[in-house]
Amino acid sequence: MASSIPGFESAELAPAALLPGAGWSPLRGMLMRPAGLAGLILLTLLIAVGAVAPLLTGLDPAAVTGPSLAGPSAAHIMGTDAIGRDLFSGIVFGTRSSLLIAISVGLVSAICGLAIGMSAGFFGGAADDILMHVTEAFQVLPRFFLVAIVIALFGPGLDRLIIILGLTSWPVLARVVRGEVLATKQLDYVLASVALGASRFHVFRYVLVPQVLPGALVLVGLIMGQVLLIEASLGFIGLGDPNVVTWGILAGRAQGLFRAGWWLAVFPGIAITSGVLAFNLTADALSARLQGR
Amino acid sequence: MYGIHDLAALRCYSALSRLTNRFVVRRLIQAVPTVLGIVLLGFVLVHAAPGDPVLALAGENGDAAYYEFMRERFGLDRSLPEQLLTYFTRVASGDMGVSYVQGRSTVALIAERVPATLLLTTSALTIAVLVSIPLGALAARRPHGARDVGINATVLVVYSAPSFWLAQLAILLIALKLGIVPVQGMTTAGSAASGIGHILDVARHLALPAIVLSLQELAALVRLTRSGLIDELHRDHIRTARAKGLSESRVLLRHALPRAALPAITVIGARAGQLIAGTVVIEIVFGWPGIGRLMLASIQTRDTPLLLTLFMTIALTVVLANLITDLIHGILDPRIRVS
């Protein structure tokens, strides 16, 4: 059924690549592909920038540290904004907060999606029916607008942003995981091990989990990319937390200042695009690797 | 008189249409709890929000008499179940309250803006479909060839870029530097043109936002067409078609593409929410007078009744889009109807 992530509808995972004990061969396989290599390098780089943010810039991104609307120069590599805040330190600290948002949402939706998808596929029957109807209902909720109205009603804050996005991003994951569990349960070697007396826990722990996790990782990566885009759009229309510098908030400050300061639009956009690209490239390469292509 | 074969065909057709009807009815019934859930969500949000719910319904700048009026009107002085009942009856009758900033019905305010948004969205979707099919086919023709890699890489970057940023770049590069098309609005300010002149004026303003909005849908559809075609081109019926001596383009267009296009319908439907979100942002950047601008204004003035109505309108539109997608899918692919 409907997945909002194109190109992954036919992500039937090739069992050969996923047999327990395949170990880190997916990683090695990804590094062999230019796209996967680029994605992993970009991702590592961004995480490193976020981790050591204060070492990269001496300037406080929230403080006025220069003339207003100064173009890129030696003192301000990416220029300054309308009231003289340094854009480069904003981008550096924004990397930290934007990635934290994406990873937190990724974790919440991974937990929800795996729990619901696994239970639906594992238990089947009525539990499956109910869980899948719930999933469908969550899937049609427009995430962007739900977060927008919650922030408008409850006030801005990263906590609600992460909770709402986390609680609405899992349906695609749950569906794929369920499908994978249902398909795996029917495989001959699984039926054989059940016939030999393998417990339900054994099947769950040694068959289903290793089979489902790599594919789930692909989707979580794509979800994190989408979350970066949603966060950016929210910050852009003024719904970000004003106390936290994120890429989206920086991008929003460029609105109406095209003629006066192109750098205000260009650099935050490059940061957001590279962040999303890092997640998409990595997920893409992992999925290609899992499909044995 | 009907011949025996015609009768068989007729019986077959009527069985099929009965199946289709049953599918349509079942799918409509399935949508009911979702719709009720969304309406309920609106109620829960207003009541869970910090502070008096009357503030969420009537805004923060009213006086005591107005709050009293709104309390009574929305039954806020009664018990929660009673309130819920009143709320559902009001929503069912299309009464979603009054924008406290503009003093008019929120439903009417939104209805005014829908045509502009619809024009932008449908134009973008048309561009996306028309351009994505040839691009996807071009890429699938020789997988991992130079053209495929080029198209793939471009599409992935476009798919990863925030739409407001693409809009900002388009304004910077095309509208401001080259000056080919106007930067803002839907019509030239002060222009009294009517008829053809008016249509051309709107088209000139529409071009850039529609193209920018189409880019993400386009990227999604190219990826899908490409992967669908590559899967399809390995199948037996394609080998048969090639063995018959059909030209490669005929194999691609007549035998592979129709089957590969089926998932595209699902994806267009499933992305309805993202498309509307993209539209809102693009409208804001280009000053297009649709629901996006209305939403921005309602956020800035904290016009909660309007914002709530907007949310419900959009959520219900997404449900409707999914419903239509499923129905079309069911009509095109009989297997869906029985499962």
List keywords for this structure.
heterodimer; A: 293 residues; mainly alpha; MetI-like fold; 12 helices; elongated; B: 339 residues; 79% helix
Share in β-strands of chain A: under 5%
State the separation between the terminal residues of chain B, measured CA to CA: 36 Å
| Structural class by helix and strand composition of chain B | mainly alpha
By helix and strand content of chain A, what is the structural category? mainly alpha
| Average pLDDT number of chain A | 84
Radius of gyration of chain A: 22 Å
| Share in helix of chain A | 55-70%
What does this structure look like?
- The complex is a heterodimer of chains A (293) and B (339).
- Chain A is mainly alpha-helical.
- Chain A has a single domain (32-46, 86-290), classed as MetI-like (MetI-like fold, Orthogonal Bundle).
- Helix content of chain A is 68%, strand content 0%.
- Chain A contains twelve helices and no strands.
- In chain A, helix 4 (87-123) runs antiparallel to helix 5, helix 6 (143-154) runs antiparallel to helix 7 (158-168) and helix 8 packs antiparallel against helix 10.
- In chain A, 52% of the residues are buried.
- The model of chain A is unreliable at 1-23 (pLDDT under 50).
- With 339 residues, chain B is mostly helical.
- In chain B, 79% of the residues lie in helices and 0% in strands.
- Chain B contains 14 helices and no strands.
- In chain B, helix 5 crosses helix 13 (304-332) and helix 7 packs across helix 8.
- Chain B is globular and about 80 Å long.
